[in-house]
Amino acid sequence: MTARILDGKSIALQIRKEIAIEVAALVDRRGIEPCLAAVLVGEDPASQVYVKNKEIACEKAGIRSRLFRLPSSTSTSELVELLSQLNCDVKIHGILVQLPLPKQINERLVLDAVSPAKDVDAFSPENVGLISQGRPRFLPCTPHGVMQLLGRCQIETAGKEVVVVGRSEIVGKPLVSMFLQKTGPLGPTNSNATVTCCHSQSANLARITQRAEILVVAIGKPNFITSEMVRPGAVVIDVGINRLGDKLVGDVDFESVSKIAGAITPVPGGIGPLTIAMLLRNTLTAASISDGF
Ligand code: GUN
Questions:
Q1: Which label site among 117, 149, 175, 276 has the fewest CB atoms less than 10 Å from its CB?
Q2: pLDDT score of 189 more than 70
Q3: C-alpha 197 to ligand 1 mean position (Å)
Q4: What sign for the dihedral angle of Cα 200, 111, 252, 46?
Q5: What is the pLDDT of residues 78-132, one digit of tens each?
Q6: Could you tell me if residue 213 is inside a domain?
Q7: 210 is catalytic
């Protein structure tokens, strides 16, 4: 079997077109021009590329973006002070602190300092709690991208055996929560799964991943999932983005797994573009729920 390739790039473009239309309507009807503040601390090259891509995507959707660059020597309190100012700025609707942060910074304190109403990453305890209770304000960008891709490719999750590999706060944990809900971002068929989450301490990982009708991998290890670990015909979603020499590769060994899976996302061009599209969605939502500046 050769797997169907799930083209995240074209789906993301479609979503971005839809968002641009909604942004134009918000400007037109309520005079609100959505604005995203991105905070970048230090010189991490990958983070610089991500932030640049986010700025370009904002511009194309009619969303304003402001970049706040801070030196790598920045302290936790300096960063928290900047965030307090951004929280109070009525012209800024969404705030994103690009991760990872330099080691001396207390990441939890910083993320907790972002106002939940502007928390377009959905990292704050309040927003995580709302997701867990099935009444989200914002959905976290990468997990939401996964759900959008599945929904828009007509891959139902209801009643399916879903295995998530990875338990990060950014991807694994919120994905588990979203797959479990009675209603997902595209309705009940886009959730209601039977979900297993495995991680670095799971015993006999392959035995668990082989059960998956839908396998989502976000473990941050290049080519970690090989064909022996995958059920024939499974839908395989690769969230990993790893640099191997001058190449970007996922957490799934595309070469071997694409021969046995029913469908698979490529890296690059799979989930990555959807993450950015869902950030735009959250910025638009933040602007819509703001008081109207
Ligand atoms: N770094 C890697 N992924 C993410 C993300 O989803 N949000 C932020 N803010 N930083 C990241």
A1: 117
A2: yes
A3: 21
A4: negative
A5: 999 999 999 999 999 999 999 999 999 999 999 999 999 999 999 999 999 999 9
A6: yes
A7: no
Question: Among residues of the chain, what percentage have pLDDT more than 90?
Answer: 99
248 and 174 housed in the same domain: yes
Confidence check: pLDDT of 293 > 90: no
CA of 229 relative to ligand 1 center, distance in Å: 28
Q: How far apart are CA 53 and CA 226, in angstroms?
A: 30
Structure tokens at 205: 């990982």
pLDDT at position 291 is 79
Residues with CB under 6 A from ligand 1: 96-99, 121, 141-142, 170
- Interval 6-50: pLDDT, tens: 999 999 999 999 999 999 999 999 999 999 999 999 999 999 999
Q: Which domain covers residue 57, as residue numbers?
A: 32-116
> Could you tell which of 119, 121, 241 is best to mutate to test the pocket of ligand 1, judged by most ligand atoms within 8 Å of the CB?
121
Note whether 53 and 110 are same-domain residues: yes
Residue 3 located in a structural domain = no
Q: Are 82 and 70 in contact (CB under 8 A)?
A: yes
User: Are residues 112 and 150 located together in one domain of the fold?
Assistant: no
Nearest CA to ligand 1 atom 9: 98
Q: List the CATH number of the domain containing 68.
A: 3.40.50.10860
User: Is 98 in the active site?
Assistant: yes
Between CA 71 and CA 293 the distance in angstroms is 30
Domain identity same for 145 and 104: no
Q: How many CA atoms, within 13 angstroms, populate the side-chain half-sphere of residue 271?
A: 24
Q: Does 240 fall in a domain?
A: yes
DSSP run (H or E) holding 30? helix 8-30
Same domain, 157 and 225: yes
